[in-house]
Automatic annotation (TrEMBL):
<dbReference type="InterPro" id="IPR005645">
    <property type="entry name" value="FSH-like_dom"/>
</dbReference>
<keyword id="KW-0378">Hydrolase</keyword>
<dbReference type="GO" id="GO:0019748">
    <property type="term" value="P:secondary metabolic process"/>
</dbReference>
<dbReference type="GO" id="GO:0005634">
    <property type="term" value="C:nucleus"/>
</dbReference>
<dbReference type="Pfam" id="PF03959">
    <property type="entry name" value="FSH1"/>
</dbReference>
<dbReference type="InterPro" id="IPR029058">
    <property type="entry name" value="AB_hydrolase_fold"/>
</dbReference>
<dbReference type="GO" id="GO:0005737">
    <property type="term" value="C:cytoplasm"/>
</dbReference>
<dbReference type="GO" id="GO:0016787">
    <property type="term" value="F:hydrolase activity"/>
</dbReference>
<feature type="domain" description="Serine hydrolase">
    <location>
        <begin position="2"/>
        <end position="233"/>
    </location>
</feature>
<protein>
    <recommendedName>
        <fullName>Serine hydrolase domain-containing protein</fullName>
    </recommendedName>
</protein>
<dbReference type="InterPro" id="IPR050593">
    <property type="entry name" value="LovG"/>
</dbReference>
Length: 255
């Protein structure tokens, strides 16, 4: 399979290549990977800065939730990349990259179901998604306008609970209390991999997983934090690989 890879907030594509090196090696050489970098410069993530001192001035984000126009631009840029550099069979994305990927795929699914011609033709070839420590996807909380272009998480109750920047904990609590109330918004095979000690995006991955078709999702929770399983923990690495392989196998079977 040919995957598009999206990095986390305050990192870049080169860092993501390093972060996923062991994981990609374990998956085998039958898959290929391309990378799309964010366009918004931002400080390098302090948690990884000591490991990448040469990257101190090269952190990027895909969008800034406080600047809604950047979210729209990120969706358009992702669509353009998929069209010009694709086709891609899947998306492998970490942290904010996973948040963007999920938002894009949900928007594409909504577009294709509401009209005969999708506004996101780049999404047509995507057969699966691998979400690593993903955030809750975004959508417009109301029709965007110059006077009120506010963004909100995809689920209105969680958006209300998350208004004070406690998105992760509030979302997790809401999802745990009423998981059946979460709508299924993504109908393609997905893998959801996150750390039980993730303090950067606490609770958001479980919400993202519940937005995806239950019988087509694979979930693996490792003992780490906000990270991509690698050489530091063989058990975490193998668990992540199993979930990804299960997802790829299902995607191939369905198509």
């Amino acid at each position: 399979m040919h995957f598009l890879c999206l990095h986390g907030l305050g990192t870049n594509s080169r860092i993501l290549q390093v972060q996923t090196a062991t994981l990609r090696h374990e998956l085998g050489d039958s898959h290929t990977f391309d990378y799309a970098e964010g366009t918004l410069p931002c400080p390098i993530d302090p948690a990884i800065a000591p490991y990448f001192p040469e990257e101190s001035d090269e952190g990027y984000a895909y969008f800034d939730p406080s600047r809604p126009s950047t979210y729209t631009a990120a969706l358009e840029q992702l669509e353009a990349f998929l069209v010009t550099e694709g086709p891609f069979d899947g998306i492998l994305a970490f942290s904010q990259g996973a948040q963007l990927a999920a938002s894009f795929l949900i928007a594409a699914a909504g577009s294709s179901s509401s009209s005969s011609s999708s506004s996101f033709p780049g999404a047509r070839s995507i057969r699966c998604a691998i979400f690593l420590s993903g955030g809750i996807p975004y959508q417009w909380s109301s029709a965007p306008s110059s006077s009120s272009p506010a963004l909100g998480p995809a689920l209105t109750p969680i958006a209300e609970a998350a208004a004070d920047n406690s998105e992760g904990a509030a979302a997790a609590a809401a999802a745990a209390a009423a998981p059946a109330a979460l709508p299924v918004l993504l109908h393609l095979p997905t893998a959801h991999i996150w750390g039980q000690n993730d303090t950067s995006y606490p609770g958001t991955s479980v919400v993202l997983s519940q937005l995806c078709r239950p019988e087509w999702r694979a979930v693996f929770v490792h003992e780490g934090g906000h990270e991509i399983p690698g050489s530091r923990s063989r058990a975490s690495l193998l668990g992540a690989v199993r979930a990804i392989r299960q997802t790829i196998h299902l995607a191939v079977t369905l198509h």
